[in-house]
Amino acid sequence: MKADINYLKEEFFRKFGDRVKDPVIFYSPGRVNLIGEHTDYNGGFVFPCALDFGTSLVARKIEKPEIRLSSLNFPGDIVIPVNSVYTPLLGSWTNYPVGVINEFAKKGIPAPGLELLFYGDIPNGAGLSSSASIEMVMAVALNELTASRLETMELVKMGQKAENHFVGMNCGIMDQFAVAFGRKDHAINLNCDTLEYKYAPLQLGSRRLIITNTNKRRGLTDSKYNERRAECEKAVELISSHRKISNLSELTVSDLWLLDKCIPDEVVRKRAKHVITENARTLNAITALEKNDIKTFGRLMNESHDSLCTDYEVTGVELDTLVYEGRRLPGVIGTRMTGAGFGGCTVSVIEGEHADAFIEKLGAVYTQKTGLTADFYLPGIGDGARRIS
Ligand code: GLA
What we know:
CATH topology of the domain at 5-200 and 382-387: Ribosomal Protein S5, domain 2
Distance between the termini: 19 Å
Largest sheet: 6 strands, mixed
Helix content: 40-55%
CATH architecture of the domain at 5-200 and 382-387: 2-Layer Sandwich
Order of helices and strands: HEEEEEHEHHHEEEHHHHHEEHEE
Structural class: alpha+beta
Bound molecules: alpha-D-galactopyranose
Oligomer: single chain
CATH class of the domain at 5-200 and 382-387: Alpha Beta
């Protein structure tokens, strides 16, 4: 269900009462990454775009120094006193917004008393940044409600810190960046080292972007993710004995020989190879899109998945089934996993006239091979986090 402002206000009044003082409403999208996976925390390039589904936040300031948090998606409303430091609640969805409130408090910007109602239509744990979306909607709201005028880039960094330190997921900056800076019908070419970025029109003509959810239950994503980060750090350390580097993205494909020379462990070598080749693929894909060469863009998406499967090893049977069965179907230009992996979603570019058959046939073969039912979304590309009412 799409967020409807009147519906959200009505739910807010039902929850918190007092129909006299109107709340304000903020919105933040989810994101899909088109190419450039597991490069952000390695100082590399990513190419995400914001979706036209996301998280709404209905918010109102109150006199009493307490924060009341409620969600239409999750049970477990909580009320906490306004504080100068906050502590996470084990397993609670409220850690995402409260982590952001905590980042503001750390900057000497205490939250006012607040009533907050969240509603999101991003599937949770599907790799479409439902967490970053909650963080950034909270950050944009608090920035306005406290008249803080912090720059969007600052809010992005605070969202990432909330996720790293309060939620405990050691993510890079891509997700918070994409949901904050998204632009309708554009992807964002972001250099995660310098944080320089450029918008690229996503002109797919008659082709469609399709996101397919494996609906695989989230398992060891966070620990495996942190393991990959550690392997990349190990690679940097080993290579630095020969050539001083501070991250893997300082190397290009012409430096791949260095991996054989410096890294004895085959697994670590493969991880580094993925990052270096993925950066090259991402830059080439962006150039291909500029030239309207969607075929090359699709081929690079495919190669990205292959590398994530064999070198980075973050795919698994569900994602691989969707991708490798999907590639056999007519009209498929490119298809790959998106996000952290180990489950979650794939993103595919399909000739428009083949979209319906793709959904039907891939859905059937996926169920037959895995016993799971996939969900398909045909998203639009939307704008970033903002006030909507
Ligand atoms: C998750 C993280 C991002 C990024 C991707 C992989 O979505 O939150 O920072 O590392 O995985 O590209």
